[in-house]
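Morning F.,

Quick status update on the modeling queue. The single chain you submitted on Monday has been processed. Sequence for confirmation:
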Amino acid sequence: MSQIHVTTIVNGDPVEYLCEPDETVLDVLRDRLGLIGSKEGCGTGDCGACSVTVDGRLVCACLMLGAEMQGREIATIEGMADGDNLHPLQRKFLEHAALQCGICTPGFLVAAKSLLERNPDPSETEVRYWLAGNLCRCTGYDKIIRAVMDAAAEMRGA
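Structure tokens below.
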């Protein structure tokens, strides 16, 4: 198979890469671009550990092909913080101890950021539904939900 040349934007920066036709976005991010924050939990789109946004839409990076990213914009967990300044969601996950092993955490953070960009004042039920595609086997979900609700309030200035 011949490799495919792709030009895209990743976390606001123009990026070019070569990939095999069958490589997923997750493979490209981790193996070709060195962005190892997104994790492979299942490889079937069931756990959300590899959540990224593509053109502002939340997707599982294990289900999309790297070749499909031509001309698109990808946002990953590596793009959340501003240098050493953590995003409010990242800070609140730490404050609320909403992480343990860390496999699911990047996906939860990317998904929660996607929610708060669409709905800055979600109800607890809305947060739970939005994050239903992200699975955690360590923390339970209450600390994660509290962290997202607290970050939402802070970001609104409440």
